[in-house]
Amino acid sequence: MRRFMVLPMAALLALAVAAPVAAGPNVSNRSGSGESIYGQWYGESGYGYVFLGEEEGYGGFGDIYQESGEWVLCAPAGEEYYGFVGTRTWGYVYDLTIELSRRLETGTAVGTVDLFTDTVDECNGIYGGDPTFDSGPLVVEVAAAGPLASFRGTGSYTIPSEFNGHYNYRGKERQATGSIDAAGVIAADFEWAYMTQTTWTEHVNN
Fold first, then answer.
1. The model's pTM
2. Which pick of 145, 169, 171, 176 has the fewest CB atoms within 10 Å?
3. Would you state the pLDDT for residue 93?
4. DSSP class of residue 126?
């Protein structure tokens, strides 16, 4: 089974630079939790993905990308190569809320997305750079499509006499199906998706 540890690592990296909740002058103990949804879609005319996460104390975040068009054989001045002709849409999600059921049978994510769309024709030297802009609601819905899996792990980072940190994380994940509607610009059914819930603790002494 494919392993995805994006959210735990993101949480730990974010908190590594946060102001400590001190248990002593140079000691900090932190803990938290998070949820995430990932989905991807593809077909003959393109592909796309969305990654959404919500961390305790840090709110929700996400990014989205879609490429629609085709790769064609270009032959300017007799030189042949393949170039993309179509549109590329990317964006960022904010004001995001993720709700997953206890055993990850279902999940929803609701927020706001800003989208930018470039028209591209690499055969004729057009690579975008003047995108159109759309903003609107994001709605993602997922449902379980595989068994519930669990994971756990530990890690540490030490500099003798300077820094000593270690963390523990555990969680569960589930493969899923679902759909996305992003501001009416992107609407697709997922070919593959997953849901994740994670909790973690961290101790730092420096």
1. 0.81
2. 145
3. 97
4. B
Nearest to 48 by CA among 177, 196, 146, 189: 189
Please give the pLDDT value at position 2.
40
The candidate with the shortest Cα–Cα distance to 94, out of 115, 125, 73, is 115
Strand partners, 153: 169
pLDDT in tens, 162-194: 889 999 999 999 999 999 999 999 999 999 999
Taking the C-alpha atoms of residue 56 and residue 22, their distance in angstroms, rounded to an integer, is 19
Number of domains, the chain: 1
Residue 1 included in any domain: no
Q: What is the pLDDT of residue 4?
A: 42
Long-range CB pairs of 178-181, under 8 A, 24+ apart, other chains included = 178/37, 178/39, 178/107, 178/140, 178/141, 178/142, 178/143, 179/140, 179/141, 180/39, 180/41, 180/50, 180/64, 180/138, 180/139, 180/140, 181/137, 181/138, 181/139, 181/140
Confirm if 202 and 30 have CB atoms less than 8 A apart.
yes
Torsion angle of the four alpha carbons 116, 187, 182, 54, in this order, in degrees rounded to the nearest 10: -120
* Structural domain of 22: 6-205
Residue 158 forms part of a structural domain:
yes
- Determine the distance from the C-alpha atom of residue 182 to the mean position of all C-alpha atoms in its chain, rounded to a whole number: 15
